[in-house]
Amino acid sequence: MIILASAVFYLVELTGPNNQPIDINPATVVSIRERRAGETHLQKGVRCVIHTSDGKFIAVLEDCDTVRRKLEGK
Fold first, then answer.
1. Which are the contacts of 63, defined by CB distance < 8 A and separation ≥ 6?
2. Distances from the Cα of 49 to the Cα of 5, 24, 43, 55, angstroms
3. Buried-state track 42-68, b at ≥16 Cβ within 10 A, e below 16
4. Can you tell me the distance from the alpha carbon of 14 to that of 6, in angstroms, rounded to the nearest whole number?
5. Does residue 49 belong to any structural domain of this protein?
6. Confidence grade of residue 64 (pLDDT, cut at 50, 70, 90)
7. Domain tally for the chain?
8. What are the pLDDT digits (tens) for 13-51?
9. DSSP character for 68?
10. What is the span of the domain harbouring residue 18?
11. pTM for the model
């Protein structure tokens, strides 16, 4: 007996602080939040911070409403 497993996933393209494209797997996103006023360690222009299941964070130029819509596939 042969069992085949297929993993289907898609990536969402967002924009990093240096205008570089960043591909994110929505299944790995734990939370998103707006940039806080006192976060001086983030580059200028960052509007949303995405936290992933591996403990990393990704800073992007898009606002969190746009990120949320893209992650939901809308």
1. 34, 47, 48
2. 33, 12, 11, 13
3. eeeebbbbbeeeeeeebbbbbebeebe
4. 26
5. yes
6. very high
7. 1
8. 999 999 999 999 999 999 999 999 888 888 999 999 999
9. H
10. 12-71
11. 0.83
